[in-house]
Specification:
The complex is a heterodimer of chains A (about 130) and B (about 400). With about 130 residues, chain A is an alpha+beta fold. In chain A, about 15% of the residues lie in helices and about 35% in strands. In chain A, the strands form two sheets. A six-stranded antiparallel beta sheet of chain A has the order 1-2-3-9-8-5. Chain A has a three-stranded antiparallel beta sheet with strand order 4-6-7. In chain A, strand 6 and strand 7 form a beta hairpin. The longest helix of chain A is centred in the C-terminal third of the chain and has 9 residues. Classes of the chains: A alpha+beta (about 130), B alpha+beta (about 400).
Amino acid sequence: MKELNELILPEDVRYTDEHEWARQEGDRVRVGITDYAQDQLGDIVYVELPEIGSTFNKGDEFGTVESVKTVSEIYMPVSGEVIAINEELTDHPEYVNTDPYSKGWMIDVKPSDIGEMDTLLDKNAYLKLLEG
Amino acid sequence: MAEFGGYEMPLWYSSAKNEHLSVLTGVGIFDTSHMAVVKVEGPQAHKLLQQCFSRDLERCIGGSRQPLVAGRCVYGVFLNEEGHVVDDTIVYQVGDNSYLCVVNAGMGGIVAGHLLKYAQGMDVTVTDLTDQVGKMDIQGPHSAKVLIKILKNPEGAFNTMPYFSFKGSFDAMPGPNGPILLENDLPILLSRTGYTGEFGFEIFSDPRHFVKVWEMILKAGEEYGILPCGLAARDSLRAGAVLPLSHQDIGHWPFIRNPWTFALPYGIDKTSFTKEFVGGAALLKYEDADYTLPFVGYDLRKVSISGKTEVMDYTQKTIGSVLTCVSDMGIGRMDGMIYSIASSDKPKGFVPQGLSCGFVKVHKPLMAGKVIELRDGRRAIKVNITSDIRPARTARVAIQKML
């Protein structure tokens, strides 16, 4: 397991206290799980994502990530409609481990209220959460 | 890291998936020092174990049911009067009046107490050696090739060493067919056992020398790509090999109608026992006990075990609960068959995608092949009841073929 100072925590994303990240890219928000989450879960062997067009409220479960040992829920950082999913994860779930903020992204959301991004944690606040 | 039986243990060292696969195709090493050893010795040690252990020590070795002798060991359970499991164990016969019972983490005191309860008036001593014995398991097809590099007399050690036999001792005594020494003269008890379903050995040592032995094996195993393996790989390997986890797959319910009743002292007729023992009489009276059955899925997706996990039959009626559900990442389905990454007959281009597997406890008997549904409140997965899970296991392959 990584020490806190080994974790990759980019500045350009916001974080949830359930260990998802959200990055605003134009009028969409890209979502994945954090380096901390993937490190805790270990080898990710399956990612279950929602159908394109599904809509969720902030905090809703939208899918699961499965490691050899456990199944964990993933939650929406913001409310909105799923407009894209990362199909690559079907064959390469390990991207979530190796590149959680880039190749390991999970869904793109068309947010119903972009203002919700401001309610998420920034890097320092997320790090504080991890430090307990 | 995870708490397990009072010990902080790594779930994995580098990658649970790679650790699992390395034991199927290469070699891995597990620190199993959390397991406890209970020593039973004295003129009536045999009598006490005959009374408390589920195997008939006079009829438990091989198909011809030979007696347990020094240098052999046997898997079984200790039951309470209701026939419920106190713990499972491997009993090692060390000498004429001397046995070691290897039990689960945190169970040394409980099993010792259980045995002492029945030892009253007997000439026998029961000693809980919890934390006084180091143990590591080297498992996988290259295990013997690694050990040969660090044993002082590998030919002597490996000559005549069938499955479930052992040699040597972890203390100053020579032990059966011992001593077994490492190249630096450290004594070990070397046992041809494990809990992965794969070829390998358990190594018992003085805890003061444990780290040294561990490092020697890692170094010797480098050329074979040895990986230290954590609890997650141990759990997925043992489930794929249809081995129970004590207090999860066997526990506070009658030890019958499960895949492990070979550990009961049934006579040839399979309806009565060849000896009387604690819990035996109760087992023969249960008529409505649940059935514990192995299952295997169609892909690697699992259900999470909680109070909400249910087993449904084809009419969508709840028929029981899920005891274990893991992903065996070394197996997959192709053309209707299940193959392992280690199967010699696997189709060309077969890459294991992993299958969920484990055990369910249901209220009615189900034939192998039956499809049931597992639900955890979030997802439902279809799985097959089966008689076996991971094919091409190597546990019983002769040492000479592995060198």
